[in-house]
Every structure is written in structure tokens, then in C-alpha cells.
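Bumping with the actual sequence this time:
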Amino acid sequence: MWTLTDAHFEHAARAVSGVALRTPLVRAPQLGALAYVKCETQQHTRSFKVRGAISRLAALTPEERTRGVVAASAGNHGLGVAWAGRALGVRATVVVPKTSPRVTRDGIAALGAEVLVRGDGYDDAEDFAKALATERGAVFVSPYDDPFVAAGNGGTLADELRDVPGLATIVLPLGGGGLAIGVATRLAGRFTVIAVQSDASPAMRLSLDRGAAITRYVGAPTLAEGLEGGVSETAYAHVRDLALRVELVDEPSIAEAMRFSRDVLGETLEGSAAVGIAWARAHAAALDARGPWVVVLTGANVEGSPP
């Protein structure tokens, strides 16, 4: 089981600073009286995932750089790895499942990475990617199950969230759990972190309920395809030990949150990024009562218009 240390956070801060963008943190009175949104939609690749990818690739040894990296992704992690690979001169291959959006596949290829489509869902794509990395002698870059990735994604973002005066609560999406783990660990329990999943693919919530990690999970069709799949033993243990609140939202509320974000907030959100807005809209009064709060808008790579 890996742990997150000060050294991981310090490395991530050095690696990401001046490479990733410091994205806007703005008031959102349409959402709640004390609400803010953190616009990672304006990050390189339109997603926070580039932070973790930069951190991980910057930690490669010279020998590992020559062998390249392999990643599995439902979309945004692949874009992040491709972008970081181009920026840092590391050859990248990204394996995506058949459910990944075409806009994301095309974006990964445009950044110079090799794109392979394998499997009906994320878990299948990850199995193939790990085997390919072993075959090639490449480094497998997990989207969440890696301390350098968690420190890059969550730690560097957490540092920027401190800019909210009197911050009480942070609401963010949860898939594998790396973002939530990085944020919560970096902030050391000083703020409440609420992590949100779709009830169509709630592997982490079910894992917590059952007291054991569900490492492979095939859920119902979901707008939040970037949050699909099982969770690792390590990520589950971190979420459990951090006592993170993991909440669920249904598919109609995700669709409505996408529309609300576009029409009211002026932000195009993918379904995976809209789960936080969906939960916050239903609990805005309670959040306001606790003090200032922020919803992390994690990605804007969506095909077509909100449903």
C-alpha cells in the first residue's frame, strides 16, 4: 500500500508549478450564497488530470524515460498523459475502452500519443494496458493508484483551494479516488471533503458499505463514464481511513447539472465533472450553513450538447 508523504507533495508542487495552469477560483452565487467553483475546465487539456500526469512523468528515471509510459484511461487521464509526454519528451501510449468519447481519443492522438482501443469498459482497458507495459518494459501510469499522481492531481489543487476565505467544504467527483485522496491528505482534515459518484457506477460507495474493495465493477450506462470501474485496495483503504464522505447522485440529476452549468454558470461540463454540481444543488442550503464551499469542476471534454 502506498502512502502520500510530504516528499510527494513537494515534488508535485515543483513539477506542476509553471507547467500546469493555476485555474480560476470564482464565486458562484447562482449555486449558493457562499459557493465558489474551481474551474479546472480551463486547465491544459480542459481537465485537472494533467496535474497528476506531469507529476508522475517528472518522477521518471532517465532509463524509464527512454522506455516510455503506458496509461489506461476513460478519457481525461489519457489526455493528461499525452500532454505531459509531449511537454517532457516522454513517449506515451494510452489504452481507452470502447466507451471513451471520440473527442477524447482524437485529442490524445493529436497530442502525439499512441491510442489503442481495447475493452468494453475501463477495467478491461486497464488490464490490457498493464500487460502491454510489462511486455514493453514501460512504466504504467495509473489515473489514481499512484502517490505521484494523487499528489499532483489532489495536492497541487488543494494548495490553490486555500485561496477561498474561511473555506469549510470541498465538493468533488470520485472515480478511482486519487483526486479526493490527494486533496484530503494535503489539507489534513482541516476542511470537509465530499466526494460524489453516480449511482450507476458506485464502486467506492459499495466498497465502503461492504468493508472491502470492489476491484472490478460493471455498472449501468452513465453520463459520468470517466468515473466508471472498480477501485484498488489501496485507494479504498485511503478513502476509508480518511473517513471521506462518498455521496451518490442519479443520472437525471447529472444531466440537469450539465444543463445548469452550461446555461447558468457558463461552463460546459462532462458528466463526470457535473456530479459535484448535481449533489451541491440539492444540498446548497446545508453547505451555506457551514460556511464558504467550493465545487471542483474537473473537466469539459464532452461530445455534443448536454442531454
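The C-alpha cells above came from a reply further down the thread. Strands lie at 25-27, 35-39, 69-72, 92-96, 114-117, 139-141, 169-173, 192-198, 245-249, 293-297.
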